């Protein structure tokens, strides 16, 4: 029921630079405009999105910042002047003749929460472009639908959607180096340094979303389950695309993921092929070797094949020492991590230019996208969990609900309500925290060990078990009690009769 | 799940272990298998070939092998633990290997064998699980999105009664015999002295031996396994709750594990010389003492320990009631004036 009225509010500031104001604006600047759109998921549930736009013209400082040479510098200069709360957006509309945006590009999306847009003449065109941009940077109907994926029939999900990890309180990331041929290759990788340098900044950025823990291991004599084919033309070994699904399982048994925590585990494997199978390339469906030499599996992780450079002359002594180039490896692994979280760049229209987020791994607005999706997913999960818990408790009338289970349920309901309220007012960060608390409480209440229905007999079972045992025993007791009562009554009557 | 114990139920353990092996061969790792066995066959004093469990008279295949990972063994195989694993209502101290950590995209295969009757399955000779409880457990799993599709196979007498009461969507069920029929065992082995396997599971395993991870065989073939001429009982199946047509369901959807993979085509660009990079390690790490082997059994202390004085507790409950009853009967019979003769 709470979901049917879910409102997602996004505060957007649209700032018009001088010379970019379209002639046919309905009201003079500054003004507020609210655009509401309904995203219907199925017959019963729908989500309303509200874009609260504040349209104003630039201040003097902003104009100075916009006078920079490139879009990137302008964005960096504008960053301290913006409202940077989580979930908000700032869009600067530039005149058509502005030199900041290169030719053919009408929108430049920065790595924080702002974008530069080139005014395209009419108001209607501007409105359409604004809507596209705001949807890209916050959420689209598609991304909300995928967040609630278990309520939508499966056939309608895009591959992007199926790839997404479920929202969880934490994730465990494991980096594994697989060396099937230690006699030929002595592989070392400086994983600790690589994790601190490249992975940790990304995880710090994502720390708002969940807790992360990272570990790494090296596995020897771990082979892929598939034998690669030798290709004479390129004199290399090839793994075809349709044999890739069978690679993971034989390795998984040795990964030790069962010893890790209860959080979902993401495995990133680096495979150094044997000397007899080098170099090894992964083929895509068309038969061309893949440039990254890597593939990933949704909700599981990714595998990359690292080919050792063949030395010019045959080596005098095996094993060869191999020092893994961690930058190349981490570029692929972090890209896979982004894809596993559902942050891909497929839906971006061609005239949009996205600034690269650099070592941080993801832009602020991509983080916002994740937060919107996870918050909606959490609220949906809480409502289904609590509904099903209520159904269970109705069915078994005499189940005992401990005090802490009851308090968890109350807390879950209160947090969910506050999350919905915060979403409707546009405070994304507090809404997300509230939704996380709601999920924790509802899961704790639902999975409490005392709620096993087996432990609570319905009344008819009690009668069925105890009556055959006690009825025969009870018959002589009841009869003798009746006899005692009759005798007592007779004795009481006799003295009155006798005298 | 093997729900029986004792030597003469050898065939149930062999059934379960053979299915476990097939499933492992087709790719499912131990971390994704919950195996519940009484596990009293291989090391049973009555086993003429210790540390082995065979599934066929010719002793070709030792299904016990070297890498069997039993998650719930011996007295831990109870109805309560089984339901806790299914519904997830497990005490927080349970290790990860004993939990069913499935989500809404998992396909689950449940194989149960043992002694059963019309509407119930006997667990270890002391308790039963009814078909209603099982159906309720599956409904709890569905509501909490703990499975995408579920295949339930049961090899017991009157097995079809166990799946009659299911009402949650996406469940397909197979049973070795209908209500009123008994499932029979395959063949006795004179060397070991017991029946080694049940017929239905034997033919299912023959069928599974031909499946490899990339095979495209579908469920309809599995339904045809073990016709009445071979099995003597009539195997049954139930597909009305299943959303897809069984023709389109691959065997490897449940018995093996074929993951969806995608080629990674994007990379991000990293700046490798991060100037001014500080190490994130805590600077004030405490010096930990080097680890040494801990004494596990302080034998010296145990040998010289005096026996602990146990405190005397007054007799409680039952004993007290019994004595009260005896004394009451005595005085009712003989009258209270005799009390002075007692003391």
UniProtKB/TrEMBL annotation, chain A:
One GO cellular component, as annotated: GPI-anchor transamidase complex
Membrane topology, as annotated: Multi-pass membrane protein
Pathways per UniProt: Glycolipid biosynthesis; glycosylphosphatidylinositol-anchor biosynthesis
TM regions (residue ranges): 463-485
Cell compartment(s), UniProt: Endoplasmic reticulum membrane
Gene Ontology process terms (BP): attachment of GPI anchor to protein; GPI anchor biosynthetic process
Family listed: Belongs to the PIGS family.
PANTHER family reported for this sequence: GPI TRANSAMIDASE COMPONENT PIG-S (PTHR21072:SF13)
Name of the protein: PIGS transamidase
Organism listed in the record: Urocolius indicus (Red-faced mousebird)
From TrEMBL, chain B:
Protein's UniProt name: GPI-anchor transamidase
Domain of life assignment: Eukaryota
Active site per database record: 115, 157
Pathway note: Glycolipid biosynthesis; glycosylphosphatidylinositol-anchor biosynthesis
Keyword Membrane carried by entry: yes
Molecular function terms, GO-annotated: GPI-anchor transamidase activity
GO cellular component: GPI-anchor transamidase complex
Gene transcribed to yield this protein: Pigk
Keywords from the UniProt entry: GPI-anchor biosynthesis, Membrane, Signal, Transmembrane, Transmembrane helix
Gene3D superfamilies: 3.40.50.1460
Provenance organism: Urocolius indicus (Red-faced mousebird)
Transmembrane in keyword set: yes
């Amino acid at each position: 029921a709470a979901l049917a009225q879910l409102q997602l509010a996004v505060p957007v500031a649209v700032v018009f630079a001088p010379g970019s104001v379209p002639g046919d604006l309905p009201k003079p600047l500054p003004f507020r405009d609210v655009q509401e759109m309904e995203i219907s998921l199925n017959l019963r549930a729908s989500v309303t999105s509200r874009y609260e736009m504040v349209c104003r013209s630039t201040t003097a400082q902003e104009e100075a910042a916009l006078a920079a040479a490139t879009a990137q510098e302008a964005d960096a200069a504008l960053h301290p002047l913006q409202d940077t709360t989580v979930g908000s957006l700032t869009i600067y509309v530039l005149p058509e003749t502005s030199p900041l945006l290169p030719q053919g590009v009408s929108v430049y999306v920065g790595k924080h929460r702002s974008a530069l847009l080139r005014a395209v003449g009419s108001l209607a065109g501007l409105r359409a472009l604004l809507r596209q941009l705001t949807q890209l940077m916050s959420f689209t109907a598609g991304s909300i639908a995928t967040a609630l994926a278990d309520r939508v029939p499966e056939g309608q999900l895009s591959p992007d959607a199926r790839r997404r990890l479920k929202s969880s309180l934490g994730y465990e990331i494991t980096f594994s180096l697989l060396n099937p041929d230690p006699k030929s290759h002595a592989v070392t990788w400086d994983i600790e340094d690589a994790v601190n340098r490249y992975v940790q900044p990304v995880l710090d950025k994502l720390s708002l979303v969940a807790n992360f823990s990272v570990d790494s291991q090296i596995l020897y004599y771990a082979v892929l389950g598939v034998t690669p084919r030798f290709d004479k033309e390129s004199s290399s070994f090839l793994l075809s695309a349709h044999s890739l699904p069978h690679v993971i399982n034989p390795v998984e048994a040795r990964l030790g993921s069962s010893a890790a925590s209860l959080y979902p585990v993401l495995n990133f494997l680096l495979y150094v092929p044997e000397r007899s199978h080098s170099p090894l390339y992964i083929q895509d469906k068309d038969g061309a070797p893949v440039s990254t030499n890597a593939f990933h599996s949704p909700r599981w992780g990714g595998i990359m094949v690292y080919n050792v450079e063949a030395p010019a002359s045959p080596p005098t002594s095996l094993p060869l020492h191999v020092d893994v180039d961690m930058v190349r490896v981490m570029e692929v692994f972090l890209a896979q991590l982004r894809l596993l979280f559902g942050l891909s760049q497929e839906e971006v229209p061609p005239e949009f230019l996205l600034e690269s987020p650099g070592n941080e791994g993801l832009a602020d607005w991509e983080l916002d996208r994740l937060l919107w999706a996870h918050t909606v997913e959490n609220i949906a999960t809480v409502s289904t969990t609590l509904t099903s818990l209520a159904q269970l408790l109705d069915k078994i009338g005499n189940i005992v609900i401990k005090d802490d289970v009851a308090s968890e349920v109350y807390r879950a309901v209160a947090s969910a309500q506050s999350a919905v309220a915060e979403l409707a007012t546009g405070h994304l960060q507090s809404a997300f925290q509230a939704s996380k608390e709601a999920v924790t409480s509802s899961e704790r209440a639902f999975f409490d060990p005392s709620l096993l229905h087996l432990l609570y007999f319905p009344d008819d079972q009690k009668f069925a078990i105890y009556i055959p045992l006690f009825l025969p025993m009870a018959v002589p007791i009841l009869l003798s009690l009746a006899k005692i009562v009759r005798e007592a009554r007779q004795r009481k009557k006799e003295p009155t009769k006798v005298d | 799940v093997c729900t029986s114990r004792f030597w003469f139920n050898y065939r149930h353990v062999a059934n379960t272990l053979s299915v476990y092996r097939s499933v492992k061969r087709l790719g499912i790792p131990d971390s994704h298998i919950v195996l519940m066995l009484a596990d009293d066959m291989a090391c049973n004093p009555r086993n003429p070939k210790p540390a082995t469990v065979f599934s066929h008279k010719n002793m070709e295949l030792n299904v016990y092998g070297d890498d069997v990972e039993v998650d719930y063994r011996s007295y831990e195989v109870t109805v309560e633990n089984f339901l806790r694993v299914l519904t997830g209502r497990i005490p927080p101290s349970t290790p990860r290997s004993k939990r069913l950590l499935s989500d809404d995209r998992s396909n689950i295969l449940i194989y149960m064998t043992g002694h059963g009757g019309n509407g119930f399955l006997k667990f270890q000779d002391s308790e039963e699980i009814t078909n209603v409880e099982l159906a309720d457990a599956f409904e709890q799993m569905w509501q909490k999105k703990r499975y995408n599709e579920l295949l339930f196979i049961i090899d017991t007498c009157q097995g079809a009664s166990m799946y009659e009461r299911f009402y949650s969507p996406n469940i397909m069920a197979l049973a070795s015999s209908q209500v009123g029929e008994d499932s029979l065992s395959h063949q006795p082995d004179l060397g070991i002295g017991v029946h080694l396997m049940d017929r239905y599971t034997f033919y299912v395993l023959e069928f599974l031996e031909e499946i490899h991870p990339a095979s495209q065989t579908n469920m309809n073939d599995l339904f045809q396994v073990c016709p009445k001429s071979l099995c003597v009982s009539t195997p049954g199946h139930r597909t009305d709750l299943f959303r897809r047509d069984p023709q389109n369901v691959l065997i490897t959807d449940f018995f093996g594990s074929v993951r969806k993979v995608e080629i990674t085509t994007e990379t991000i660009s990293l700046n490798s010389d991060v100037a001014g990079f500080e190490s994130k390690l805590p600077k004030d790490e405490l010096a930990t003492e080097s680890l040494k082997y801990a004494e596990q059994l302080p034998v010296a202390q145990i040998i010289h320990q005096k026996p602990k004085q146990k405190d005397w507790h007054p007799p409680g409950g039952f004993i007290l009631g019994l004595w009260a009853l005896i004394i009451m009967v005595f005085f009712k019979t003989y009258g209270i004036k005799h009390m002075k003769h007692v003391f």
